[in-house]
């Protein structure tokens, strides 16, 4: 599949899949979207409500590593320990990683080596990126996930339902529900009615939130037994 690096509206880069007309991150701003959906609407509310010392995050779609990197920066800023597992079936190429400008755009050049380590670390093994952040990249298909009661937060960042509808159906969200601990939450940029209904069917409580730039709404789902 033909891919190229493009610059989004906030100056940060993303990968564009020409055959699918699909972006890894929002063309309206990769960094803005990532912070709004996963940090502002996911990590921060969970910390504010539960004030944990340690947080377990599962990312569905590790991709460029942007979501992992901004979570790493927040772990440092908030002095929280985050155990982060990112699932990705088709890893980004090393040459593509070199063209991503997240470290510069986030004014985090002192952490360039940590961003590099995220991408260079071995798959399916834990790697201590810092004292506050432990990473495990899992090379697997989403339907192979079988975690149970393991995570506090899920970042659901799969490609859109327009191009991969099977990733947004009941069977996948049942796996997500099982993977979360009680009171855990799932956040995603998506807001389609079919996605919301699939989440409700497996037991989630679901709310619509204001979306990131370029999107009117997004979804947050909570596992509350």
Task: Please give a handful of descriptors for the protein shown.
225 residues; alpha/beta; Rossmann fold; three-stranded antiparallel β-sheet; 11 strands; 32% helix
Number of domains: 1
Q: What would CATH call the architecture?
A: 3-Layer(aba) Sandwich
Average pLDDT confidence is 96
The DSSP helix count reads 7
How many strands in all?
A: 11
- Spell the H/E element sequence: EEEHEHEHHHEEEHEHEE
Give the CATH superfamily: Vaccinia Virus protein VP39
Strand adjacency order, main sheet:
6-7-5-4-8-9-11-10
Largest sheet: 8 strands, mixed
Radius of gyration: 16 Å
CATH topology descriptor: Rossmann fold
Low-confidence stretches: none
Task: Provide structural commentary.
- With 225 residues, the protein is an alpha/beta fold.
- It has one domain (31-95, 108-222): 3-Layer(aba) Sandwich (Rossmann fold), CATH 3.40.50.
- The protein has 7 helices and 11 strands.
- The protein has an 8-stranded mixed β-sheet with strand order 6-7-5-4-8-9-11-10, with helices on both faces. A 3-stranded antiparallel β-sheet has the order 1-2-3, with no helix packed on it.
- Strand 6 (126-130) and strand 7 form a beta hairpin.
- Helix 1 (30-50) packs across helix 2 (66-78) and helix 6 crosses helix 7 (193-202).
- The longest helix is centred in the first third of the chain and has 21 residues, at 30-50.
- The model has no long low-confidence stretch (mean pLDDT 96).
